[in-house]
Write a structure and sequence with these properties.
240 residues, mainly alpha, 7 helices
Length: 240
C-alpha cells in the first residue's frame, strides 16, 4: 500500500507540476527571445504594437485567476503605453492573506496563468478560423497519453493566414513570464505541492483512485496537445 501511495504521489506531481511547467518554460523562453528582438529593433513600444492582444490576455489571465483564489485586486491595467520612466505594458496588483493556505497556493497559478490563458485563447481562435485543425486537436485530446497522433488536415489558407497573424500577436505579447511572475509563483509552490500530496494520499485509499488517475491522464493529454500546438505557432512568429 505504501509503495502504491508513493508511486501515485510521484505520478500526480509529475503530471500536474512537471509536464505543465516543462511547456511553461519552453513557451516562455521562446517568447522572451522574440520580445527581445522586437525591443532591440523597434524599442519598447514595438512590443505594444506587435503584441497588444497578448498583453491584454496576459494581464486578464493574472486578474481572473487572482479573483478565483480570493485575492484582493488593488489595481490593474490590462494594457498601457510605456514611457521612459515606466516601461510596464500592463499590471495586476493584488494582495492576499498569508495565513490562508488556499490564497497562498493561488500564487503559483496566478503567476503562470498567462501561459494557460494564451494557450486557450489561441485554441479558441483556431476553432473560429481553422475548425478542421481544431477538431483534429480535440480528437487527439481524447486519445490516451501514449497514443497521441495528429495529422494536419486540409485548411483554407486565407483563414490560416489570418489565424497566424492574430496568434502571433497573442504569442508575442502574452507568453513571456516576467521575473515578477516567477517570483510570485514561488510563493505558492510548496503549498500546492503539500495540497497535491495530501489529496493523492486520500484518493489512493479510496475506490475512486482508478477513475481519478484516468481523469488525470486525460487532463495531461490535453495540456500536452494544446502546448505542442502552440509551440510551432510561437516558433513561426520568430521568423516573421
Amino acid at each position: 500500500m505504501l509503495k502504491d501511495i508513493l508511486t501515485n504521489i510521484g505520478l500526480v506531481l509529475g503530471l500536474l507540476i512537471g509536464v505543465p511547467f516543462l511547456f511553461i518554460y519552453l513557451l516562455s523562453a521562446i517568447n522572451r527571445n522574440t520580445k527581445q528582438q522586437i525591443a532591440n529593433r523597434f524599442g519598447v513600444k514595438g512590443q505594444l504594437v506587435f503584441g497588444f492582444l497578448g498583453i491584454i490576455v496576459h494581464e486578464a489571465s493574472h486578474l481572473i485567476v487572482a479573483l478565483i483564489f480570493g485575492h484582493h485586486v488593488d489595481q490593474f491595467r490590462l494594457i498601457r503605453i510605456p514611457t521612459a520612466e515606466n516601461e510596464t505594458l500592463g499590471y495586476v496588483h493584488h494582495t492576499w492573506r498569508k495565513q490562508n493556505i488556499y490564497q497562498n497556493m493561488g500564487n503559483l497559478f496566478i503567476g503562470v496563468a498567462p501561459i494557460f490563458g494564451c494557450c486557450l485563447t489561441t485554441l479558441l481562435l483556431a476553432r473560429s478560423f481553422i475548425p478542421e485543425v481544431y477538431q483534429s486537436l480535440i480528437v487527439s485530446t481524447q486519445q490516451s497519453f501514449g497514443q497521441i497522433s495528429w495529422l494536419m488536415p486540409s485548411v483554407n489558407w486565407l483563414s490560416l493566414l489570418i489565424f497566424l497573424v492574430i496568434a502571433a500577436n497573442i504569442c508575442i505579447g502574452g507568453f513571456d513570464l516576467s521575473s515578477a511572475d516567477f517570483e510570485n509563483s514561488k510563493q505558492g509552490f510548496w503549498q500546492a505541492i503539500l495540497f497535491l500530496v495530501v489529496v493523492t494520499i486520500m484518493i489512493s485509499i479510496t475506490p475512486f483512485s482508478a477513475g481519478f488517475f484516468a481523469l488525470l491522464g486525460h487532463f495531461t493529454t490535453m495540456i500536452v496537445v494544446i502546448s505542442i500546438f502552440n509551440l510551432p505557432v510561437c516558433k513561426i512568429k520568430l521568423e516573421i
